[in-house]
Amino acid sequence: MKEAKPRVYFATKNRGKFLEAARVADSFKISLKHLKFEKQEIQAWNLTEIASHAAFQAAKVTNKNVVAEDAGFFVRALNGFPGPYSSYVFKTLGLEGILRLMRNVGNREAYFQAAVAYCKPSHRPVCFTGIVKGRVARHKRGTQGFGYDPIFIPSGGDERTFAEMGTDEKNLNSHRAKAFARFCRWFLGRSHGVSSETS
Amino acid sequence: MKEAKPRVYFATKNRGKFLEAARVADSFKISLKHLKFEKQEIQAWNLTEIASHAAFQAAKVTNKNVVAEDAGFFVRALNGFPGPYSSYVFKTLGLEGILRLMRNVGNREAYFQAAVAYCKPSHRPVCFTGIVKGRVARHKRGTQGFGYDPIFIPSGGDERTFAEMGTDEKNLNSHRAKAFARFCRWFLGRSHGVSSETS
Known about the structure:
2 copies of one chain form a homodimer. The first copy, chain A, is of the alpha/beta class. The first copy, chain A, has a single domain (7-191), classed as Maf protein. Chain A has 6 helices and 7 strands; from the N terminus they run βαβαββααβββαα. In chain A, strands 1, 2, 3, 4, 5, 6 and 7 form a 7-stranded mixed beta sheet that branches. In chain A, helix 1 (15-27) crosses helix 6. Chain A is globular. The interface between A and B is medium-sized, with 22 and 22 residues.
């Protein structure tokens, strides 16, 4: 008899995020289902806290095994700003606001981080993170992607921003893909009776 | 027989906020008690949503009649930024960050807003707001108060910033005092059988 794929629900309103995650899950033979659920986001300095709370809440309300994700853009010279509030800051200040804050700032280190939390109803959530390091560009460049992509140059590559890369190239090693891959490895180990809650 | 003062619990970790609110409540003969409770703050564009959620959650957990408050500093030219995330932005960008974003910006309109939500266990919260309008100063001035006070000049006064006023003078017509006074008027009407949930 063919063994059924383990099934997990991804609570997100964002279809792009779901497709990116589903591709990672599929490579681990995990069936990721789209749960169109408005997740509850708390205010916190830490993405893992935000994602864990969202997963816990979604599992409780829907009575399903869910993952919830949160991501942010962190600029070192701005003490991590915009961090957990990247979406709000993007909509209010925009990229121009970040570039203005970074004018004449020498240290341009920045990173994208994603946190993926998994939760079963009435259980404690388990959280996994992924990071892409890089720096803030002097000017925006490129038209692909979204959010802070046009001003982020990942380390270890050429000088292109995320917005100058195709979605496939960007997603291959994105913070979100890394966090989801960590979750998938843990999840598979766990569904075979192995416990390894390191993240 | 002497009638007991109506009693409400203010869920806050901040003693300064409690004292400011207690003074307002006292002038309405309402007994405000300090509930040292870490309120849950959700991410939202709207302070009323944040305060209402916090009050609902605190009432549920403590089984008391509570008020919860949220406040923010809104700059019109920055699309309301930092708004609901004023505290985080103050800790990361600081006043210098706001002044940098406002350099050479003509429209300096800004306001402080507070939202005070009242909730009985298992009831829907009711929310009241208060606003102080003014503008963003060119430079910070004054040493009193906290947060954005040194760069906020309230309308209708002289050219002093909030940080150049004494606490008493500032609090007399603060956004927080206004929101609490609105709550108190409603609460007294309600405890005498009059329903007036306008805010």
